[in-house]
Structures are given as C-alpha cells and as structure tokens.
From TrEMBL:
GO terms for cellular component: ciliary basal body. InterPro entries: TTL/TTLL_fam. PANTHER family: TUBULIN POLYGLUTAMYLASE, TUBULIN POLYGLUTAMYLASE TTLL2-RELATED. GO terms for biological process: microtubule cytoskeleton organization. Keywords: ATP-binding, Ligase, Nucleotide-binding. This is Tubulin--tyrosine ligase-like protein 2. Residues 352-382 are annotated as: Disordered. Gene3D superfamilies: ATP-grasp fold, B domain (3.30.470.20). GO terms for molecular function: ATP binding; tubulin binding; tubulin-glutamic acid ligase activity. It comes from the Eukaryota. The keyword Nucleotide-binding applies.
Length: 445
C-alpha cells in the first residue's frame, strides 16, 4: 500500500527509519523491515533522520541530550545500575534495610567479594552451626554473563575467585519438571522511570537444564545452570527428554497450562513475579532524567518447590538470538509488541516537517502496512495495547497493585503516565506508600 500525503498528492511520505549499532540483533532488523520501516543509511541520510536507534551498549549522554521529538533510544542512562550483579545486590540490600526483609526476601542472600568476605564467613559459620550442615552457595563473576565462570560449592575451601564476584545462597530446592531444573525469563519494558511505567510481557521463556538435577554433582553445569548458551552444547540438548521434549525451552503459556493441570494457581505466581519486578525497579529509581527512551530488561526468576519465585538477576540486552522455533515465536512477537508500545505514527509528519534539508533525494518508497500498525492511536504517546500488561506503580490504588489485562485500563493508564516530558514526582510518594505495602502485597512465600 502506498501512503500519500494529505496536502500534496505528489509527495511520497517518508517511511519510519531504524538505526542499528554494530552487533544489534538481526531479529530487530527483520521485525522492523516486516513492519515497513527502512534502515538508516549514514551516507545518504541526515544524522537525525531516524526514528529508533537500537544498540547493545549504553548511548553516550550526548545522544540523550540531542534527542529529537520523533526519536527513541532503546536504553536509559545508567540502567546498568540494576543489571550488574553486584550493583543489584547492593541496591536490594539497601531496600531490605529500609523497608524490611519480608518485602525484599525474594532475592537470595548475597555477598560481594572480596569486600564482604568477613560478613560472608560470619553467615557461613552461623548457618553451619544452626542447620548442622553447610548450605549451598553459588559464586558468579559480576562482569560475566551466560553462565560463564560460575561455581557452586558447599564447603568454603572450594571457593576460589580471581575477580569481583557475588556469592549468593544457592536455591537447592528448585521446582523440577521430570527431574529437570528450570528458570523463567520474564521480559519487562520500562517506558519511563519518572513516573515509573512498567510493562511485563505475558509470554516468555522457560529455560531448562538438560541433565537431571543432582546435588551430589555440583560441577555438572548441565544439571545446575539453565542458560541456553550452556545447555545447547549439552549431549542431551537435541534428544527427547521425558516430560520436557527436545531442546531446553518452553513458552510461559505451556508452563502455565502445565501448572494448572496440577492445580497450581499460575495467576498468583504471575502476581508475585510482577511484585518482584516493581520492587526491584523501585530500588534503582530515580534514574537520571531522560526522555524518549525505553529499556527492555530480562528478569531471571527461579521458582522453588514451594512455588516461591526468586530473583536471580536482571539482564541488560536480554538475548534476542534465535536458537530454536520457540525463541522465534516469543522474541519476534515481543519485538513487534514493543514497537506497538512505542506507538509510532504510521505517517511520520513530525520528522518530515522538521527536516526539510535532508541529504538524500527521497526515494519513492512503497510503505507496507502490516496488520499490526496502529495509525489511529493518539499521536506521540506511548500506548500499551493488548498483549502487554501495564504495571503503573504510581497510578493504581492501592499502591503497588497491578492493572491486569484490560485494554481499556492499560490505555487509560498509559495516557496518564506517558508524557513527552515526564513530571518530576512519584518516587518519594511511592516510597511512602511502600511503608504500608506489606499488608497489600500477596505473601512471597
Ligand atoms: P549469568 O549472568 O552468568 O547467566 P545468572 O545469575 O543468570 O548468571 O546464573 C546463571 C544460572 O545459574 C541461572 O540461570 C540459574 O540456572 C543458576 N543460578 C544462578 N543463581 C542461582 C541461585 N541463587 N540459586 C540457584 N540457581 C542459580
């Protein structure tokens, strides 16, 4: 379908333009091309002639300062405050101190080494005396990801590290399906930190270990770590595993159906996970003010055998590679929904009018309208629709509850909360409300 400008039928409108930094995942390009966008061409186009810039690393502050009204960046300044393991541990510890460990007991006790060495020894000895046998611990380098450099131990003599690490209580009673450990990758998109506006994606990935869980073999990464980057090299990855199937992934939908068969309240579990998301993001709010950006986080959550969810870590740039068909289904749809959430208008008159002198002579472009586009929605607003659930910590009475499901409610909330220039409000008010939150939140146990 070709879009023709209202005023001048001879003018061909500019399609929306995406800009990818080196190493940006290929699926971003695919999804945006599927939606009729075109890729930014540095040689042909003016430096500001794009609508969405996606990169894997933080943007320089100059990019935030020079942002134009028609543009979006896929990172907030300093989002790394929540995604580096030691920073997250520090923030959560501070929140535990300020608001009580009951509210923040969803994160396993953690020590940053070598700084917390003495405290760790004290805890290790105390547990050993009170429980009678040592607990299990997991040691993770703070700079690494994808399961690299991880060590699980019971006896302190096995603890060895050569860089800054966190030593975290190992959840030794995970929920198992047919004997296999699993964790959940929950996708969370923050469209504003001030006011805090969070969307939790209802679909997600369940990631399995590919060998049966066994506490007598702590060094078997295929039994204890659920990272796909590790398990896809396991001997059992491709084989059919009873109760799990081939590969190492399920969708949330499949997992939730599985839970319902066994009479587990999956909705309650979902609510608890959403609470974890809100409380974690509150721990790093406010971030420095920045407009026209959003952040996609990957929350890794482990469920124990009592159906208590535990936050393991928060990922910056959650992996968007496609290792299997389940990845394709979940991640492709996720990205389409994120673009929907950003609510670009189909006709980008803003950029068109503000940039008369672009370098390139406009090419005649046929702009394909996918079934997903929403030209009728309010211009310039971020709008949450259908699939995403908007969690607006500031708007829903009582505080820290969730707006669930309803399209109407989500849209109304979003119109209220998402502004081009967010108000400075909220966090102090939220913190006040959090003092009373214990009575509001469902128990994490
Ligand atoms: P990375 O960034 O290297 O992936 P994670 O913190 O996500 O580090 O840990 C990798 C994997 O190790 C997780 O997916 C999970 O299977 C396991 N794991 C991590 N922390 C714990 C813990 N405290 N208890 C039990 N398992 C854990």
């Amino acid at each position: 379908m070709e879009i023709i400008a209202d005023g001048d039928a001879s003018e061909t409108l500019k399609p929306l333009v995406f800009r990818l930094h080196e190493n940006a995942p290929a699926i971003i390009r695919e999804v945006l091309l599927e939606r009729g966008w075109t890729e930014f061409d540095q040689k042909e186009q003016d430096d500001t002639d794009w609508n969405l810039y996606w990169r894997n690393s933080p943007f320089p502050m100059t990019d935030h300062h020079s942002i134009k009204p028609w543009q979006r960046l896929n990172h907030y300044p300093e989002a790394v405050r929540i995604t580096r393991k030691d920073y997250l541990a520090r923030h959560l510890k501070r929140m535990k101190g300020a608001y009580g460990s009951t509210l923040y007991e969803f994160s396993p006790v953690a020590f940053i080494m070598p700084n917390d060495y003495v405290k760790f020894i004290a805890e290790y000895s105390r547990e050993r005396q009170s429980v009678g046998r040592p607990s299990y611990w997991i040691c993770k380098p703070v700079h690494l990801s994808r399961g690299r450099g991880i060590l699980i131990f019971q006896d302190i003599k096995d603890l060895v590290y050569h860089c800054t690490v966190i030593v975290q209580k190992y959840i030794s009673n995970p929920l198992l399906i047919s004997g296999y450990k699993l964790d959940l990758r929950l996708y969370v998109c923050v469209t504003s930190f001030c006011p805090l506006t969070i969307y939790a994606y209802e679909e997600g990935l369940v990631r399995f270990a590919t060998e049966k869980f066994d506490l007598s073999s702590l060094d078997n990464v295929y039994a204890h770590l659920t990272n796909t980057s590790i398990n896809k090299y396991g001997a059992s990855y491709k084989t059919y595993k009873e109760g799990i199937g081939c590969g190492c992934k399920w969708t949330f939908s499949k997992f939730r159906s599985y839970l319902r068969i066994f009479g587990v309240d999956d909705m309650l579990l979902w609510q608890k996970m959403n609470n974890i998301v809100i409380l974690t993001l509150l721990a790093v709010t406010p971030l420095p003010e920045a407009s026209n950006c959003f952040e996609l986080f990957g929350f890794d959550i482990l469920i124990d055998d009592k159906f208590k969810p535990w936050l393991l870590e928060v990922n910056y740039n959650p992996a968007l590679c496609l290792d299997c068909s389940i990845d394709d289904t979940v991640k492709r749809k996720l990205l389409h929904d994120i673009v929907e959430l950003l609510n670009y208008k189909q006709v980008d008159t803003h950029r068109q009018n503000e940039m008369p002198g672009s370098k390139a002579v406009r090419r005649q472009v046929s702009w394909r309208r996918t079934g997903q586009s929403t030209p009728e929605e309010a211009p310039g607003l971020l709008s949450g629709r259908k699939v995403s659930t908007c969690i607006s910590a500031s708007q829903t009475p009582p505080a820290l509850q969730f707006a669930r499901g309803s399209v109407k409610k989500v849209s109304a909330l979003t119109r209220k909360t998402a502004r081009a220039h967010p108000r400075k409000t909220l966090t102090s008010e939220l913190r006040e409300k959090m003092k009373h939150a214990k009575s509001i939140l469902p128990s994490q146990n």
